[in-house]
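Changelog note: in this version the structure field was regenerated for every chain. One regenerated record is shown below for reference.
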Amino acid sequence: MPDTFLDSTELILNMGPQHPSTHGVLRVILKLDGEKILGTDCVIGYLHRGVEKIAENRTYTQFNPYVDRMDYVAAVSNGLGYCLAVEKLLNVQAPPRAQVVRVILTELNRIASHLLWLGTHALDIGAITPVFYCFREREEALKIFEQYCGARLTTHAFRIGGLQYETYEGFERDVKEFCEMFPPKVDEYEELLTNNRIWAGRLKGVGILNGDDCKEYGVTGPVLRAAGVKWDLRKAQPYSGYEQYDFEIPTRENGDTYDRYIVRMQEMRQSVRIMEQAVEGIPAGPIMGKVGKVIKPPVGEAYVSIEAPKGELGYYVVSDGSTQPYRVRVRPPSYINLQALDKMVRGALIADVVAVIGTLDIVLGEVDR
C-alpha cells in the first residue's frame, strides 16, 4: 500500500483479525473509497507456531506429527509431503501396498478439505444450506480416518517409510461405499449453487487472476488451474504411483471466483475416480519399507512437493548426518496464494473481499506455521 496521505474520500478499515470470513486470524487492512477497494495489506503472524524451528530440535520421527497441525484441514497431505522428503534423503521407497493406501487416504482428505471449503465459502456468500450438506458427507470421510488411525482432524496416517497402521477390516468396503455415495451428493451441491443466479452474480467476474499473474505470484492449485494453466503435480511430477491412475486435470479459462468454484467441484469427482481405481488394486505385502528404528539420513538435502488440496506443498529438508534435521523449510500453498489477494480485489467492493478470501481457500495454520 503506497505511503500517501489520505484524501477526504479515503478510509482505512481493519477486517479481522477475528472475522467470520477470514477463516482464521487473518487481518486485512483495507484502503477504501466508499465501498471500493483501493488497496489491501494482509497482516499475518497471529497464529505463529514456529514449526520449522521446532523441527531442528526434534528427531525426524518426532517431528512427523507436527506437520499435521499446519493445514489442519488437510493433515494427511502434510504428512505425505514430509515423509516423501525424508524418504528421498534416505533413498528408500514405501512398499507398493503403502503407496496405494497413501493415495486413497490423500484423495479422501482432498475431498474432506474441499467440502469444508465449499460449506464455509457458501456460508460467507450467504448460502446457509450447503454447509450442512457438506458436513454430512465430510463426516463419512472422517469416519474412515477415525477407524484407520483414531484421529478425525489432525490425521496422522503415515510413517517415514510407509504407513502407521495396517488397514482395518472393512477398509476397502467403506471406501467403495463412499465412492458410490459421494458423486450424487456433488450433484446436489451443484443443483443448489452452480446455476443459482445469486451465487453466479456474486462470483462471476470477481477476483480475476489470469494465468500470467498466477505464474508471477507463484500461485498454484485450483486457483492456477481456473486461470487455464493445466498444471497438477500428480501428473507433472508423479509421486506415490499417481502415474498409474487415469484421471483428468480440471481447468477453466476465466480465472474468476466462479471458475475456481467449478474447478474444485470437478476435482472432487476426479478424486473419487482415483480412489475407485486404487481401492480395486490394493496389493498384498508389507506396509513399511527398510527404515531403521533410528532414522539418520546421510548428509544432504532434499526437496519434495506434492499437489495438496490448496496447491503445491513443498518440503525442503537438510540433513547434517544426525538424528535431527539441520533445517526444515515448508513451501505452503496458502501462504503463497494469499499474496495475490491484493491484485484480485483492487477495484472491487468490500463484499467481494469476502468472496475472494473464501475462494483462495486459505488455512492460517499453514500461512503462519
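Spot check on this record: The longest helix spans residues 96-125. The two ends are 25 Å apart (CA to CA).
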